[in-house]
Known about the structure:
The protein is an alpha/beta fold.
Amino acid sequence: MENAKAKILIIDDESYIRESVRNFFEDRGYYVAEAYNGSNGLEVFEKIKPDIVLCDLRMPGMDGLEVLGTITDRSPVTPVIIVSGAGNISDTVEALRLGAWDYIFKPIEDMTVLAHAVTKELERAAFIKEKELYRKNLERANSELKESLETIKRTRDQLVQAEKMAALGELVAGIAHEINTPVGIGITGASFLQSKTLEISRLHNKGKLKKSEFEAYLDIVAKLSSSILMNMERAGNLITSFKQIAVDRTTEEKRVFNLREYIEDILLSLRPGYKKNNHSIKLICPNDISIYSYPGVLSQIITNLVINSFEHGFVSVEKGKININIIRGRNSITLLYRDNGVGMTKEMAAKIFDPFYTTARCRGGTGLGMSIVFNLVTQTLKGTISCKSDPGKGIVFNIKIPYVRPDEKNMKK
Ligand SMILES: Nc1ncnc2c1ncn2[C@@H]1O[C@H](COP(=O)(O)OP(=O)(O)OP(=O)(O)O)[C@@H](O)[C@H]1O
Ligand SMILES: [Mg+2]
């Protein structure tokens, strides 16, 4: 700060003190205001907002300590230097306790000592103000940063939500499209059956129904009813898959379970499916992995993978082999799933997680199995999944899920 322009307020009931201070500092380029007692001092203080105050202690009426208390209250960054008689030591100490910045005893023998104190305290005040400004700026920058972070988080959440809604919309549209065909076939078949039945019963009522006509009718009934049944079953399957996706997966409880034992149980339940064909499944998994996760979800994932290997991978394979390898990491568990089936091209493998992608539509495949697996791994288990395959070389799935140990379960939701 440029001291030469600073405003000094001297509060003293002795006019000669005020005068000598004024003369001395005005000569050095300061602006000096005077007040002759405590309450006058406060008035002038409010009016001119001085940069520094020199204040006597013993004054009639309001004394210096009260003035000091009020000033430090109203403006803690304005330095107050006590100028008091040498006999007022205890008051001076009290003044320092109340927030006086410095003191000087009267009579002031050497004005340069006071000048030095004034310069020093003005500098200190300037430094404190600067620091305060810096702190405020920092605080502002900080809160702005916090705000931007909040905005980013909100935007991200909205994006995720929008993405979810879009995915759901796509799913609903896809389902409607998929269900349309079997339901349409069902309606056509049933109405044809209805009209044929009416025709036959009319003939029957008139007693004109020939045996050959009745046999032809039976033939139509057999064909149409099985076609209707097949198509309704397909629609039913689609709806079941849809429900499976739409179900709120958080309703399933997380719990601690032994990974190896649990996977063995899953494989056992799938046994009827592969024992009759010469296929085999081999599991390599440490005995002692206890994990806090969703067992039901894991079961759904493995079941889908295994059924796919049987249905797609092993169509023309004599002895199908599936290997499931569990690798324990520090914070994650990797599940490597491999079959030695017919595999698929890279282009097909890139679409495997797309909803409704299937090469088995004619056999009743919906193409939702792997997309459900993808959602279960990434959304419910918060993991990752990737697929690699080549024609004739089988398929490999790499699934990585967080490894939450039993003792960590309370830390992680
Ligand atoms: N192990 C595998 N080997 C070869 N191809 C596979 C394998 N697993 C999946 N596929 C291919 O990926 C496609 C998609 O699989 P997905 O499970 O999503 O559908 P789907 O089995 O055809 O029908 P859904 O499971 O809904 O009844 C399959 O149609 C098949 O072409
Ligand atoms: Mg499938």
